[in-house]
Amino acid sequence: MRIDKFLKVSRIIKRRSVAKEIADQGRISVNGRVIKSSSEVHPNDEIVIKFGNKTLTVRVKELLDTTKKDDAQRMYEIINEEYERDFRSENE
């Protein structure tokens, strides 16, 4: 399954076009390699996504073509979620 579709179906990112844009900006890596939106993901792959001041690391558990909201979290497990601190507000 393509990474942009996985992120949309798993509801990690709400829109496939946004997932595609983030991937094509080099803000997503799979198993340590920066990838493009057309790259394939497989079960047990580790995905790192950089959203602004947040970095989310997930492991692919299963691939589903469609999901209901309750089933979406079966597709992945969160390994780590980090927030960068805003140093500007601390120094003011």
UniProtKB/TrEMBL annotation:
**Single biological process term from Gene Ontology:** rescue of stalled ribosome
Q: Which Pfam families match?
A: S4
Q: InterPro entries this protein is in?
A: RqcP (IPR025490), S4_RNA-bd (IPR002942), S4_RNA-bd_sf (IPR036986)
The segment(s) forming the RNA-binding S4 domain are 1-65
Q: Provide the alphabetized UniProt keywords.
A: Protein biosynthesis, RNA-binding, rRNA-binding, tRNA-binding
Output one GO MF annotation: tRNA binding
Q: Which Gene3D superfamilies match?
A: RNA-binding S4 domain
Subunit comment: Associates with stalled 50S ribosomal subunits. Binds to RqcH, 23S rRNA and the P-site tRNA. Does not require RqcH for association with 50S subunits.
Protein role: Key component of the ribosome quality control system (RQC), a ribosome-associated complex that mediates the extraction of incompletely synthesized nascent chains from stalled ribosomes and their subsequent degradation. RqcH recruits Ala-charged tRNA, and with RqcP directs the elongation of stalled nascent chains on 50S ribosomal subunits, leading to non-templated C-terminal alanine extensions (Ala tail). The Ala tail promotes nascent chain degradation. RqcP is associated with the translocation-like movement of the peptidyl-tRNA from the A-site into the P-site.
- Record family assignment: Belongs to the RqcP family.
Q: What is this protein called?
A: RQC P-site tRNA stabilizing factor
Origin organism of this chain?
Answer: Lentilactobacillus curieae
